[in-house]
Design brief:
With 359 residues, the chain is α/β, with parallel strands linked by helices. It has one domain: 3-Layer(aba) Sandwich (Peroxisomal Thiolase, Chain A, domain 1). Helix content is 31%, strand content 20%. It contains ten helices and eleven strands. The strands form two sheets. It has a nine-stranded mixed β-sheet, sandwiched between helices. A two-stranded antiparallel sheet has the order 2-3. A hairpin with a 2-residue loop joins strand 10 and strand 11. Helix 3 runs parallel beside helix 4. It is globular, with a radius of gyration of 19 Å. 50% of the residues are buried. Pfam families: ACP_syn_III_C.
Length: 359
């Protein structure tokens, strides 16, 4: 979907301290040695800090960096993966109450790692359909719960590679007024038959979290592969083709070629083959991705693309005139955005903060 007059006015990030994976492996942390072998150098760990608090901090920073006040925000999107508090409690309204107040609609989005970019599309549609001024898109997760193993949640079936998860909060302010970047186009799609891959071997009732069992996505993949190796290979191929199709379509809608893309934000991974698998089909070299930055933080759930954008802007990795391709996928859902950097953000008049630096 091509967009006209929708800008990114503010970006905010809440990153906790980073744990060195080699140090963790040296202390005998289960799964840390496999993480080092898979290319991970660090992981952001929030301790007992609640995810909604990180989302609220990031949202406050994004709003402060924008030219907008709370009264300008017409809708709030909140992306999450894990449960964020008491059962039945609405975390999106917690962020609303802390940051903007009022009675605007606040929506929680559950598209796994795709949530924030999916929220960007929904927020942009809301602003254009209702002719409103600004929207706030937020997301966060703390994977340090007793019911989640950040080190071993998704070991790749049949390989020695593993994914690890880091904790973070992130936020964007979308604006019809202006900003430091222009949202040229945004799109999304789903590959619904892949849902079987993400539940293989797990009954739908009772829900897994109620059984006191730690989720193991890698085990589900392995089960699917054992049952039907051909279908497993076809599923991986279908995801790759869908991601490339969506990216090409969104680039075409934006009127931007792959050669004009300066950097690409994507799901953080520890290994180069993943980044190459995402970018090579588009004719984009892996060096334009975020491999080195991402693998020192862990996969930040739904926050990867926004944390990466913040880092690129803050460190001068992109400057006015550059284009950024933002990609994400989670489960069977995918999203893509093409962003043009149009100005130097006012907050960079102060010494820039490096988003990924350990603190």
């Amino acid at each position: 979907m091509r967009l006209d007059g929708v800008h990114i006015a503010g970006v905010g990030v809440c990153l906790p301290g980073v744990m060195d994976t080699r140090e963790a492996a040296g202390r005998g942390v289960p799964g840390a040695a496999e993480a080092v072998e898979s290319g991970w150098t660090g992981v952001a760990v929030a301790g007992e800090r609640p995810a909604p608090e990180m989302a609220a901090e990031a949202a406050q920073q994004a709003l402060a960096r924008s030219a907008h006040g709370p009264a300008d925000i017409a809708v709030l999107m909140y992306a999450s993966i894990l449960p964020h508090g008491p059962e039945g409690w609405p975390p999106q309204t917690y962020v609303q109450r802390r940051v903007v107040g009022g009675t605007i609609p606040a929506v929680e989005i559950r598209q796994q790692c795709n949530g924030m970019l999916g929220g960007v599309e929904l927020a942009a549609c809301f602003l254009t359909a209702h002719d409103r001024l600004a929207a706030l898109v937020t997301g966060a997760d703390n994977f340090g719960t007793p019911m989640f193993d950040r080190w071993r949640y998704a070991a790749a079936a049949g390989t020695n590679r593993t994914s690890i998860t880091g904790d973070a909060g992130a936020a964007l302010v979308l604006s019809r007024k202006g900003g430091f970047a222009r949202l040229c186009a945004v799109g999304s799609m789903s590959v619904p038959w892949l849902e079987d891959l993400f539940r293989s071997g797990i009954p739908l009732f009772p829900p897994e979290p109620t059984l006191g069992r730690i989720p193991d996505v890698g085990a589900r993949f392995a089960d699917y592969r054992r049952r039907d190796p051909a279908a497993f290979a076809a599923a991986k191929d279908a995801l790759s083709r869908a991601r490339a199709e969506l990216a090409r379509r969104t680039l075409d809608e934006a009127g931007v070629t792959a050669d004009q893309i300066t950097r690409v934000t994507h799901v953080f991974a520890g290994a180069r083959p993943y980044v190459e698998g995402v970018l090579t089909p588009l004719g984009i070299d892996a060096s334009r991705g975020m491999l080195e930055f991402g693998r020192r933080l862990g996969h930040l759930g739904t926050c990867d693309p926004v944390v990466a954008l913040d880092h690129l802007v803050a460190t001068g990795g992109v400057v006015p005139g550059d284009h950024v391709l933002m990609l994400s996928n989670g489960g069977a859902s995918l999203a893509c955005a093409v962003v043009e950097i149009t100005g130097r953000p006012a907050w960079l008049t102060a010494p820039p903060r490096t988003a990924g630096a350990a603190r």
